[in-house]
Amino acid sequence: MTGPNTVVEAMGAGKAAAEAIAKYLEGRPLDPEYTLSRPSVFVPPVAVPPDEAAEAKRPAARHLAPAERRKNSREVALPLTELEAGREARRCLRCELETKEGKAAVGRT
Question: Which pLDDT belongs to residue 48?
Answer without folding.
Answer: 76
